[in-house]
Amino acid sequence: CLMGVVTDEMASLVIAQLLYLQSQNSRKTIHIYINSPGGSVTAGLGIYDTMQYVNSPIATWCVGQACSMGSLLLAAGEPGLRYSLPNARIMIHQPSGGVRGQATDLLIHAEEIIKLKEQINGLYAKHCKQSISLVADNIERDKFMSPNEAKSFGLIDSVIEFPTVTEIEDINIKDDEDDLDISSDIPTKKMPTPETVPKKTDIELTPTTQKD
Fold first, then answer.
1. Catalytic residue selected from 40, 93, 109, 146
2. Active-site annotation holds for 23
3. Among 68, 71, 84, 127, which one carries the catalytic annotation?
4. What's the CATH superfamily of 2-159?
5. pLDDT digit string (tens) for 194-205?
6. Whether the Cβ atoms of residue 26 and residue 56 lie closer than 8 Å to each other
């Protein structure tokens, strides 16, 4: 799960989990549930790079919100496996930051954040299959989207609606049909009946005399 602000500590945990799950079964899909307002760009890019590095398919789910860096990680899931619940919110925007110092230092940091902006524009364009110019226009300011709008933009592939009662019943029926009957494989131990319980033999105690 990726819940809360994206920080270095969170990134360390998520990266470790991704690497561990891949080591267990590299062909099994890994599901990442995202409810994040965003956070550190560098920490988020660390998670992003690990998602691209592992061989396991990664499904991403927006639960609540996926804003800023959270929306990029949502879009970075395996094509066809990027989902959102119907009442979630998704937001994209350009990176922001603040720094204090000498004029030369301010210029250095300004150039760095411009490079990050261009890099992130390219990543959105890659995963959303949009032109960089269209992405740049949309992230110039905070752009909030509904799940359907995010789907049209290419951030996600599907909006998961809540299943109907009929669908739930069908799932339960299928689960019942798929249950394995393992009762024949379990050795049974017969409980003793009154007829099979051996009767205790009566013990007759006889008094003994003590010799003087």
1. 93
2. no
3. 68
4. 2-enoyl-CoA Hydratase; Chain A, domain 1 (3.90.226.10)
5. 555 455 444 444
6. yes
